Amino acid sequence: MATTTSTPAVDRAASPSPAPSRSPRGRAGWVPWLFLAPYLLLFGGFVLLPIGLGLWISLHSWDFTLPGKPFVGLDNYKELLTPGTGQFERFWNAMQATGLFTAVSVPLLIVIPLAVALVMNQKFRGRNLFRALFFAPYVLGVAVVGVMWRFLLDRNIGVVNYLADLVGLPDKTPWLTSIPEAWIALVGVTVWWTLGFNAVIFLAGLQDVSPDLYEAAKVDGAGAWSRFRHVTIPGLRPVLGFVVMITIIASANMFGQSYIMTRGGPGQETRTAIYYIVDTGLSQRQMGDAAAASWILTVVLMLTSALVFAATRERGKKKGAAA
Questions:
Q1: Residues 189-218: what's their mean pLDDT?
Q2: Among 112, 174, 292, 307, which is least packed, fewest CB within 10 Å?
Q3: What is the pLDDT of residue 289?
Q4: Contact 295/55 with Cβ under 8 angstroms?
């Protein structure tokens, strides 16, 4: 009769168990950080460090030509925010010029690129050439754009006034030395230069809108305006919020066009906030005031961006609740 034997429980417990193997993921946990290290070094050196240094400079009377840079706390901010001080009027005139340029240019840089994107989204002969022509100016640098249009808009030798004379319009328009002509020139050049970028973003958003929605709207008898209002705009809402935000930030940071084309004139009418910061920090060597002005402008832009984001998100919530 065969007998079976079983290993006692004591023997099983006493037998050594294999050592737990170390997870390959834990062993190679440093590998992702190794790949991230170049980016983190560049981000820290060119973003975080300048932010911290700018805040530190704004708390000092910082003239980079002098060895002493005394700590003044919030005095630089008080001088910019207190009426009657030396920097108050200059700074807020520059902020007013920035607000004016932003208020005029942003709607144009939303409406015109959207119209261009709607045309580029259609199928027609020469569509790729049409797209290239509108995007081509954006690849130019601000120095090229500024110098080119400074000559084109010159009152005496400019091509724009020459063409105006050919069609019977005033041919001595002071585009760069008078108000409001200078603002019209700056806004017009900026729109011509940058509308291609926004148009490409809008075009990408339009191509993500399902064609079935347009077909359904046509079946329901919706016309072109109704399809645009009830299909295109809702489909572009996330893209529209992004474009509005980056356009506001870009317009508020306008400097090169004003510096090259009008030199901030006539007087100081087209001297924007960035122009003021550059002039105060580099020409007058008052880096503390310039850094404080930079932080005030940054806070204003952060609050504006937050409002745009909140407005876009609130619309999305209402839309979801209605559905």
A1: 91
A2: 307
A3: 93
A4: yes
pLDDT value of position 85: 83
Q: Give dist(CA 280, CA 288) in Å, integer.
A: 9
Q: Model pTM?
A: 0.83
Residue pointed to by tokens 């700056």: 186
Q: Is 122 helix (H, G, I), strand (E, B) or coil?
A: coil
Which helix (DSSP H) or strand (DSSP E) does residue 221 occupy? Answer: none
Question: Sign of the CA dihedral 18, 20, 24, 28?
Answer: negative
Q: 233-252 and 287-322 helices cross at what angle (nearest 10)?
A: 170
Q: What is the DSSP string of 123-169?
A: --TTHHHHHHHHHGGGGS-HHHHHHHHHHHT-TTT-HHHHHHHHTTS
pLDDT of residue 2: 46
Q: Which domains does the chain have, with CATH numbers?
A: 75-322 (1.10.3720.10)
pLDDT in tens, 149-176: 999 999 888 899 999 888 888 778 899 9
Alpha helix ranges (H) inside the chain: 9-14, 24-27, 31-43, 49-58, 75-81, 88-120, 127-135, 142-152, 159-166, 181-207, 211-219, 224-227, 233-252, 256-257, 273-278, 287-322
Cα–Cα distance, 121 to 209 (Å, whole number) = 11
- Residue 219: closest CA among 236, 233, 231, 237: 231
Q: Look up residue 104 and give its amino acid.
A: V
